[in-house]
Every structure is written in C-alpha cells, then in structure tokens.
From TrEMBL:
<dbReference type="GO" id="GO:0046872">
    <property type="term" value="F:metal ion binding"/>
</dbReference>
<protein>
    <recommendedName>
        <fullName>bis(5'-nucleosyl)-tetraphosphatase (symmetrical)</fullName>
        <ecNumber>3.6.1.41</ecNumber>
    </recommendedName>
</protein>
<dbReference type="GO" id="GO:0000166">
    <property type="term" value="F:nucleotide binding"/>
</dbReference>
<dbReference type="InterPro" id="IPR051094">
    <property type="entry name" value="Diverse_Catalytic_Enzymes"/>
</dbReference>
<dbReference type="InterPro" id="IPR006674">
    <property type="entry name" value="HD_domain"/>
</dbReference>
<keyword id="KW-0408">Iron</keyword>
<keyword id="KW-0479">Metal-binding</keyword>
<keyword id="KW-0378">Hydrolase</keyword>
<dbReference type="InterPro" id="IPR005249">
    <property type="entry name" value="YqeK"/>
</dbReference>
<dbReference type="InterPro" id="IPR003607">
    <property type="entry name" value="HD/PDEase_dom"/>
</dbReference>
<feature type="domain" description="HD">
    <location>
        <begin position="66"/>
        <end position="176"/>
    </location>
</feature>
<dbReference type="GO" id="GO:0008803">
    <property type="term" value="F:bis(5'-nucleosyl)-tetraphosphatase (symmetrical) activity"/>
</dbReference>
<keyword id="KW-0547">Nucleotide-binding</keyword>
<dbReference type="Pfam" id="PF01966">
    <property type="entry name" value="HD"/>
</dbReference>
C-alpha cells in the first residue's frame, strides 16, 4: 500500500494539457507537483491507495470500450481538479473507479442498491453509482470523498464535494462522448459555472419534454440555486 506517488495526466488522451505528471508523497517529497502546470497545496489527509491494483480490478469489471472511457474520465477529472485547485489524486482515483458497477446486470444493481424512487426501479442503470460505492466499500475502499464521487456521478454531486463535481463534469464531457465540449472547456477555468451549465441543461431538457427528473439530480439543481 503506497500513497499516490505518480499519475500521468493526459499524455495519451489529452495532448498538450497543462499538467503532465503529479507527484504526491514519495519521490515528490510530500507535495503535489504538476509539471508544466500549477502547484497545488496537498489535501488535509493524503490518499493512501494502491491505484494500480484498483485500476486492474476496474478493468476486469467493465467492457474494454468502457475502460477506455474510464481512463479518459480519470485524466480529464484530474485536469479539471488541477485547474481549479481541487484534490488531484482523489479526482483521478474517483475517475478510475466511477464506473466499476456500470456493466453489471440489472438484477445485480438492484441487489446492491435498493431503488429510492420510481426512476431507479424502472431504470436500474441509474443505480450503478450507488452500487459502485457499495462494491468498493465491500472491497475495503474507505476514502469518503472518493466514494461520494463514485456514488453521485450518475445524478449530480452533493454540495461541498468538489472532487465529485470534477468527476461528474468529466463523465459528461470527456472527448470520447463527442458532446459538451463547451462544458469541458469551461470547467478548466470555472468549475462552478460548468457544473451549473451541466446540471441546468440536463434538468431543463428533461422537464421541457415532460420526463421525470431523478430526485437527487433535482436536489443538486436546487442546491446550485438554479431555476427551471
């Protein structure tokens, strides 16, 4: 078990990104350092995790194309975190872990996460964030900030968890999706603005078509001070 000591940012998926390497503890002397990018203060509690082992476990849980998406989300979440002074190692780790339950069958999702509303019951895929958190906790992952980011990436981040905001935005805007480039670009300078645009456009789109909005998403929408 080691601290996150080296994370490669965007060298493959985002050429020319402002951050290329992150060091946390170990060779970095207990600091976070982003080469060719801003230097961030370390979080209050270091993230102790064998990221290679967790990444290998995720690879076994998802389809190959899903794993490519996972890596793009992790790198983009780290880039967004770096640009906004948010905890980079946790953003990267949460990106790696966010879809760990995404390819489970509906029956398994329902077993892991009890539906909270009619949307969950009718569309069990909406449960894969909560189910992912349950799996990670059962496997011994204990970092609350990362677990919340995994749980909330399907419906929207809870207030105060900026790592969760980075992962949510990265998930909806990573380049492989081919959409939301404006949100991705905005997030690199204005995390709050990007989150409001992302959540706001989703809720207004659904409401405009008479589609029920998940209660958790609506709670995030209201917490951000947005209006339909």
């Amino acid at each position: 078990m080691v601290e996150v000591s080296e994370i490669r940012l965007s060298s493959k998926f985002f050429p020319g990104s402002q951050g290329s390497l992150v060091y946390f503890g170990g060779r970095g002397g207990g600091r976070i350092k982003i080469v060719a990018g801003p230097v961030l203060a370390p979080p209050n509690e270091p993230l102790h995790v064998d990221l290679d082992a967790w990444q290998a476990r995720v690879r076994l849980m998802v389809k190959p194309r899903r794993f490519e998406h996972v890596l793009r989300v992790a790198h983009l979440a780290a880039d967004i975190a770096a640009a906004n002074g948010v905890d980079v190692p946790r953003a990267f780790a949460a990106g790696v872990l966010h879809d760990v339950a995404r390819d489970l069958p509906d029956s398994e999702l329902l077993r892991l996460a009890t539906p909270e509303c009619a949307i969950d019951a009718a569309h069990p895929l909406a449960l894969h964030g909560r189910a992912g958190r349950v799996l990670l906790e059962r496997w011994g992952f204990t970092d609350r900030v990362v677990l919340e980011a995994v749980e909330d990436h399907t419906t929207g981040p809870r207030p105060g968890n900026l790592v969760s905001a980075c992962v949510y935005i990265a998930d909806v805007s990573e380049p492989g999706r081919g959409v939301n480039a404006d949100i991705r670009e905005l997030a690199l300078s204005d995390l709050d603005g990007a989150l409001k645009r992302s959540i706001g456009s989703k809720v207004r789109y659904l409401c405009g078509r008479g589609i029920e909005v998940h209660p958790r998403t609506m709670a995030t929408f209201q917490a951000l001070g947005l209006q339909e």
